[in-house]
Design goal:
homodimer, Dna Ligase, domain 1, 35% helix, 5 strands, DNA-binding, 129 residues, 2 domains, Arc Repressor Mutant, subunit A
DNA sequence: ATGATAATGAAAATCATTTTCAATTAGGAT
DNA sequence: ATCCTAATTGAAAATGATTTTCATTATCAT
């Protein structure tokens, strides 16, 4: 694997963010630093970083990426799709997993709720929760 | 909402399954009972049942649907994508959620691991974990 | 510096899902 | 039971996100 400036930019800039951008949102952000960077390069590298376990990925549609690997979960507003970090630990029962013959690799908790601003202005529910 | 035979078929047949079919897999199954049923009808109704909270949905790509609403989680093989039910409870900290101003609606735990048969025959990792 | 190899960006392709739309059907009113 | 209306269906086209292809460019070990 080669160390390109795009790859470095993608990883370092994602790590600076406290938000969880989609590939397209992130593309807009990165264009400010490298106006020529392509959206597919971003997709490619985000996926590759995710597969290497260097960043997190949230299963929304479009997917959102997370530069923060510290152990935390996300709560997602079922109305506006906004995502907040939420910190708590969950005891995963390894025994149960091993009984099924699986080797645990990792887990994600996705919590859905209604955020306060959407609770006021009742909007219709977003898709792909 | 009208009670069509397609709608009834979709819900009753999904509830009979112990597996978690994708819309397309489910379409093949249902064609045996109603050869004319369309894939988009299946998509439409599965989504609608899911939004009504009548069935479960697993965030894979393609999505998988689950007729079993009893409280359980899924473990997914990172290599072949197979999904097993896994039963254990997780204490979700409501206080933390309310502190952020959210009203809890539900949560899912997605566990990733390597199943025993893939552990033997090392295959490449599937996407969209 | 050179060459081999991998990564890039643009465009096209793909895949899952959703929308459109004309035809059909369900279910209440008659 | 028949009629009427609105909702649902299936087929096809459209969409949106992501991935692939491919010619060009950049990286890095030598």
């Amino acid at each position: 694997m080669k160390n390109t400036k795009q790859r470095e930019l993608i990883l370092s800039e994602l790590r600076k963010l406290k938000t969880h951008p989609t590939a397209e949102e992130f593309h807009k952000i990165l264009k400010k630093k490298d106006n020529n960077i392509g959206l597919c390069t971003i997709y490619r590298n985000l996926e590759s970083f995710y597969e290497q376990g260097l960043i997190g990925k949230i299963n929304t549609k479009p997917a959102k990426y997370d530069g923060d690997l510290s152990s935390h979960s996300h709560i997602r507003c079922i109305s506006c799709g906004k995502i907040h970090d939420i910190f708590f630990s969950v005891p995963i029962n390894k025994v149960e997993i091993e009984k099924l013959g699986y080797k645990l690799q990792g887990y994600k908790i996705e919590i859905n709720g209604l955020c306060s601003s959407c609770a006021k202005t009742k909007k219709r529910r977003e898709k792909n929760v």
